[in-house]
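Table 4 source record.
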Amino acid sequence: MGRIRLIKMTEKKGQMKVQEMAFVLIAIVIFFAMVALVYFSIRLSTLKTDVTTQREEAAKELVRKLADIPEFSWAECSGCVDVDKVLMLKDRTSYKKLWDVDYLMIEKVYPNKTQIECNAANYPDCTTITIINNTKNYGSPTSAFVALCGYEVSAGSVKCELGKIYASAKAII
């Protein structure tokens, strides 16, 4: 009788040790799962920032390149925009799909005037030329300073003013 009791007590102790080991293993698995979740959440947040930074850099590069394309460029100056060419491109629908952008606008920064959209009738007494505006929700456009040059008919000379070119690239989803 004493021996059976001793065997049952050792079986209970053995079962307790097996249960303790199972709980410890489960706790270790849960701990490493939580560590992995924290690691992946941190990694994903940095990945989102990296993607945002890369998209912003691509948009800035697009704006810099737009100032030097033949459709915009002033022949005598690198990085200068020919306002007369841009004004002619404004009404052309064939050029709307040439650049992969949702929004493209050129603005005279100096001298300050009230914002008036340019057309053939009010040029040069205007400030903005919106070439492409495909959507109302184009986000925050990227901009770069450029020189806006054109022939001044009355003086018979070239006049350059400070301007900004704005562009918003299509969203990549």
